[in-house]
Amino acid sequence: MEARSAMSWYCGSLLAVVIALFLSVSLGVRAAGVGVGGGVDLKASCAATPHPDVCLRALQADHSIKASAATPRDLAEAALRAASTAGGAVGDYARHELNVVKDNLMWQCLNECAEDIEEALDHLDDTEGGLDDGKLRDVKQFLDTAEEDTWSCDESCKHAPNTPIKAALLAKNRDFEAVMRVANALIKRATGGSDAPAPAPPAPRFIN
């Protein structure tokens, strides 16, 4: 009888230890943004970026991302593709409107903004075909610099008249900058760097 009680106590204790270990690992995995199935948790990963809503929308729109199997590096690459798309929309809009505007200051605004966007895209487009460690470092360095406001369409356009064209351009540019911040945060998560979200203005509304 005593042997049976001792065995029951041992089995109960062992089960408690196993459950505690499972919960500890599960919580740790979720804190790291990894889902129970081994893939990343998109919401948890995006919550660690400056613009969680922008992040989630961009990643969910990328059909190559399967959360059950995606890695943090996959998310970083997807965010960079989204940034390239958003930047292309700004550059295309600016170049198109250059052929329409007559005001010199507005023309200068569009031209300088387009040049800045195209320079940024030169860096981001290098990621096409996948990110090796060297490319990842280069892109991260550029995004860190961009976050320090080295260039800004707002600065280029501050003397331009307030027109619907200027408003649309700056809105698209804010979209682009938001996705770049998201991409930079996800790169830091993928490489084990700091992923604490930097203070940022409210997430912009995407302009079609």
From TrEMBL:
Xref: SMART domains: PMEI (SM00856)
Domain of life, per lineage: Eukaryota
Keywords, in A-Z order: Signal
Lineage of the species this protein comes from: Eukaryota, Viridiplantae, Streptophyta, Embryophyta, Tracheophyta
Record's protein name: Pectinesterase inhibitor domain-containing protein
GO molecular function: enzyme inhibitor activity
Cited CDD domains: PMEI-like_1
Any single Pfam family the record assigns to this protein: PMEI
Annotated organism of origin: Miscanthus lutarioriparius
Domain Pectinesterase inhibitor per the UniProt entry, residue ranges: 37-186
Signal sequence range: 1-31
